[in-house]
């Protein structure tokens, strides 16, 4: 039998970036906040001498335990979905900080075009450029409306960057810290792209170029360029993450508590309002009910959608009729690009998660799509993230896959290979969606989330076009051999691609087409907020975290406003 605890003002499900931001802002406003976190407590002291590629990057020490919770996957509705038994296409975070602990730190603002993609695309190219099966929609908020929240997140995180992107939305303030070091590799990319007539700039980075103290008084250290960022916690406290910024800020108020080793299995609701959450401490087996004035889902994209589904909140999306919103508009990304093999050696074993240069000339609608059979694009970057020896074995395409020739080519090319790659935007399609699996359950007896997803003609056309542009850049950099990425066919949940899943709990201006409003307040349950990349109406040409951080600050403002006034916030 569940034990009912004392009521609090706000309960968050998860203690990562979104949960931490909500907790810090609400606690500073005097609200009592509890976060329910399925993983353990951890921090910088736990990451000392963490440079163990096998343990962290190959065996996923910091990631979700898939024996307790996973998803099932299929390409099409007529296939049987099967569980993902090991980490593949994306890496699900767990523990204090969530995926914000093991991220690379690339911190972008989505383009103004992204937030009004349906309106702007139809104005320029007419309706149905892609056909009726693609589900374009605006976000219910503009870039200009969201800009102050972008600014707040960047100053909390101390983002290092430079305002040299001619395609970016207007900024109210400069980046809080200067860009990272421009290495010889990046200078080569800068010269090649400039010679081609493009506009290169340093990538905005949460691996800080210098020590920084944020407005909450939390200090983030300067990056050491060790090359152990993605899949690792930072032993120097130099990669901005929730456990060194917003979590301490929340705790210092005295209004915040985190319950670890605790898995939320249901959002409780009655009479159109959420009353709290039910969770299980998986170490003791005890079950608890945490009542709250406001419930905030701040776990990962997949889990936010799943909790709404198993709690019977909202109307499930039906791909046949197009009705319903919950689970709709799931998007991923495509990864066009090219690899260059060089005679000269580079220090590619050194770097940082967001050390890189980018061009946005082929992102968003920054180039004309009138004669193309796709929309949007991707940011084209050369990053120097630190090539680690187990996972990095670049060889020319005609090299045998094993044996002495492979070993020789692998050693030869380890420091003689550079990659120019893009994160290609993903446009929602009616057959790509999230649902509950009818067969498989998690360790707590709750149905697993089912992912139905495949690449579309839009994805394939975008991938081909951007890969050709990447090949031109690699050739201009002086590669002796340039190899564009192979065309994509069907999506496979292995191998790793990105952790940039979006959609399923989309935001918007109309409850008929979205799950939450632009304060991330649920249309049907006014004291329930759902925040994360699941709110994105489509995926863009960037990493999502900067935009997620902005939405979290917008949501926090809404929660505080709701605590005083109640009712719908829009």
TrEMBL record:
<keyword id="KW-0274">FAD</keyword>
<dbReference type="InterPro" id="IPR000172">
    <property type="entry name" value="GMC_OxRdtase_N"/>
</dbReference>
<keyword id="KW-0285">Flavoprotein</keyword>
<feature type="domain" description="Glucose-methanol-choline oxidoreductase C-terminal">
    <location>
        <begin position="428"/>
        <end position="552"/>
    </location>
</feature>
<feature type="domain" description="Glucose-methanol-choline oxidoreductase N-terminal">
    <location>
        <begin position="217"/>
        <end position="329"/>
    </location>
</feature>
<dbReference type="Pfam" id="PF05199">
    <property type="entry name" value="GMC_oxred_C"/>
</dbReference>
<dbReference type="InterPro" id="IPR007867">
    <property type="entry name" value="GMC_OxRtase_C"/>
</dbReference>
<dbReference type="Pfam" id="PF00732">
    <property type="entry name" value="GMC_oxred_N"/>
</dbReference>
<keyword id="KW-0560">Oxidoreductase</keyword>
<dbReference type="GO" id="GO:0016614">
    <property type="term" value="F:oxidoreductase activity, acting on CH-OH group of donors"/>
</dbReference>
<comment type="similarity">
    <text>Belongs to the GMC oxidoreductase family.</text>
</comment>
<protein>
    <submittedName>
        <fullName>Gluconate 2-dehydrogenase alpha chain</fullName>
    </submittedName>
</protein>
<dbReference type="InterPro" id="IPR036188">
    <property type="entry name" value="FAD/NAD-bd_sf"/>
</dbReference>
<dbReference type="GO" id="GO:0050660">
    <property type="term" value="F:flavin adenine dinucleotide binding"/>
</dbReference>
